[in-house]
Amino acid sequence: MKIMKKIAIVLLATLTWLQVSGAEGEWLTDFDKAKAKAKAENKMILLDFTGSDWCPPCKSLHKNVLSTEEFLKYAKDNLVLVEVDFPRKKAQSAALKKANQELARKFDVEAYPTIVVLDSNGKELSKKAGYGGEKAKDFIAKVDALKKR
Which CATH code for domain 25-148? Predict the structure, then answer.
């Protein structure tokens, strides 16, 4: 009986961990993989240029929009998510730092956060710097409107 209880606890803990880790959504860091996935799945690409560990508006955008259940549900069916991060404390490989810098140059990013939305072919549909406190519902509506372009 004790073994069954232990097995049940381990299974419950594992399921809880999987739910929590899945709630973050699938954020890619490889732009070429994201483009291929977007093309194959006919989805838009959302690039989040962020300073994840130091930028207050970036943290607010992530908390209030990008990590919400509402946004992640929408993203699952409509977007390929790409994090282009410029942290101060979090370690990154030299290759990732270089790739992120190249993307920032390509999309002329001058402030964080900056959200760039591309169509499934990689054509820029929208670029917006800053975060004004909008709710996930309003953010989703703006992104969804880009599909009709």
Answer: 3.40.30.10
Among residues 9, 52, 44, 53, the alpha carbon closest in space to that of 117 is found at: 44
Please identify which residue in the block is written with the tokens 């959504």. Answer: 25
Q: Which two tokens stand for residue 29?
A: 């860091």
DSSP for 18-47 reads HHHHHTT--EE--HHHHHHHHHHHT-EEEE
Please tell me the pTM assigned to this model: 0.83
Burial class (CB in 10 A: 0-12, 13-18, 19+), 94: exposed
pLDDT digits (tens, 9 = 90+) for 12-59: 444 443 343 344 579 999 999 999 999 999 999 999 999 999 999 999
Q: Per-domain residue ranges for the chain? A: 25-148
